[in-house]
Amino acid sequence: MKLLRYGPRGQEKPGLLDNEGRVRDLSGVIADLAGPALEPEGIARLKALDPASLPVVEGTPQDGLRLGPCVGSIGKFICIGLNYADHAAETGADIPKEPIIFNKWTSSIVGPDDDVELPRGSLKTDWEVELGVVIGKGGKYIAEQDALSHVAGYCVVNDVSEREYQIERGGTWDKGKGCDTFGPTGPWLVTPDEVNDVDSLGMWLEVDGRRYQDGSTSTMIFRVPELIAYVSRFMSLQPGDVISTGTPPGVGMGQKPPVYLKGGEVMRLGIEGLGVQTQKVVSAK
Predict the structure, then answer these.
(1) How many C-beta atoms surround the C-beta of residue 271 within 10 A?
(2) What PANTHER family does UniProt report for this protein, alphabetically (predicted)?
(3) Which of 23, 44, 99, 208 can bridge 57 by disulfide, Cβ–Cβ 3.0-4.6 Å?
(4) Residue range 191-202: average pLDDT?
(5) Residue 279 phi/psi, 5° resolution?
(6) Alpha carbon distances (Å) from 149 to 66, 136, 180, 282
(7) What predicted TM-score, i.e. pTM, was given to this entire model?
């Protein structure tokens, strides 16, 4: 299934994408695509539905019909840094011996096609296409061999990052990662049965039509099961938590000379089988 949330910001309703590309309304079945609806029993209930029995939502998704973040009420937005060998190389960083964990604040989360705002005074805002893992079954101290049973689905994340705030202003990375609008998520939550091989998904990102990132999850240092198991040693995971698993090479700071967003650009990014995002870059109000 491709599950989604549609409608005005803050008023999104749950839905699914049918085989004809139409949105079907799920608000008569679940209140939101969040929490209990993402647990294994909740996903099984949704899979048992006949999409033809659900109301059709007027409009074309991502073309007049706004999609919100594909998960509602995200509890934790956990990110993994330098998790692609070729991205670590372009930044001049050593290969991490253990996963690097940081956070994006949940106030950064927006829909897949919402505008991305440059923070006031920003000079080094950058892009990162990433595979998002949505937790369905909660737990802690999860065994690596059991980790995938805790996954409700996968999605596209743009881990927008302000490099000066992240690297040059002291403290942790978080201050450059969690600015408002820095977490476009979606368009769909794709259940694992529709993902052929999560370890070999093509992923890409373009700015104003120029392709900067063109990679694959095959170059991840730490794979999805290992990341879930590792993260769960340090915090419990709950249904609806999102783990964003790192980015391939081609980020702006890795260009020679570096390239950063100035405002007015359009970012377009996607992951094989998980959909496409499009964001206009604007100045913060």
Answers:
(1) 26
(2) FUMARYLACETOACETATE HYDROLASE DOMAIN-CONTAINING PROTEIN 2A, FUMARYLACETOACETATE HYDROLASE DOMAIN-CONTAINING PROTEIN 2A-RELATED
(3) 23
(4) 96
(5) -130, 135
(6) 31, 8, 32, 39
(7) 0.97
- The residues with which 131 forms a beta bridge, in sequence order, are 156
Q: Is 9 left (phi over 0), alpha (psi -120 to 50) or beta?
A: beta
- Is the CB of residue 284 less than 8 Å from the CB of residue 180? yes
Determine how many CB atoms are found less than 10 A away from the CB of residue 104.
26
Round to whole Å and give the CA distance between 52 and 20.
Answer: 11
**Nearest-5° Cα angle at 103, 123 to 157:** 75
The amino acid that residue 188 corresponds to is W
Phi, psi of 103 (to 5 degrees): -130, 150
Using pLDDT thresholds of 50, 70 and 90, give the confidence band for residue 209: very high
Residues 6 or more apart whose Cβ sits within 8 Å of residue 26: 3, 13, 14, 15, 16, 33, 46, 54
Query: Exposed/middle/buried for 248, CB within 10 Å: 0-12, 13-18, 19+?
Result: buried
Reply yes or no on whether the pLDDT at 91 is more than 80: no
Pair of tokens at residue 268: 């377009």
| pLDDT of the residue at 284 | 86
pLDDT, tens digit, 9 for 90 and up, residues 140-159: 999 999 999 999 999 999 99
How far apart are the C-alpha atoms of 274 and 140, rounded to whole Å? 27
E strands, 64-179, are 64-65, 77-81, 100-103, 109-110, 116-118, 125-126, 129-135, 151-158, 161-162
Q: What is the 3-state secondary structure (H, E, C) of 138-151?
A: CECCCCHHHHHHHE
Partner residues linked to 204 by β-bridges: 214, 270
Q: In the structure encoding, which two tokens stand for residue 217, read together?
A: 């999850």
Q: Where are the alpha helices (DSSP H) in 12-53?
A: 40-47
Instruction: Give the torsion through C-alpha atoms of 175, 220, 186, 49, to 10 deg.
Output: -140
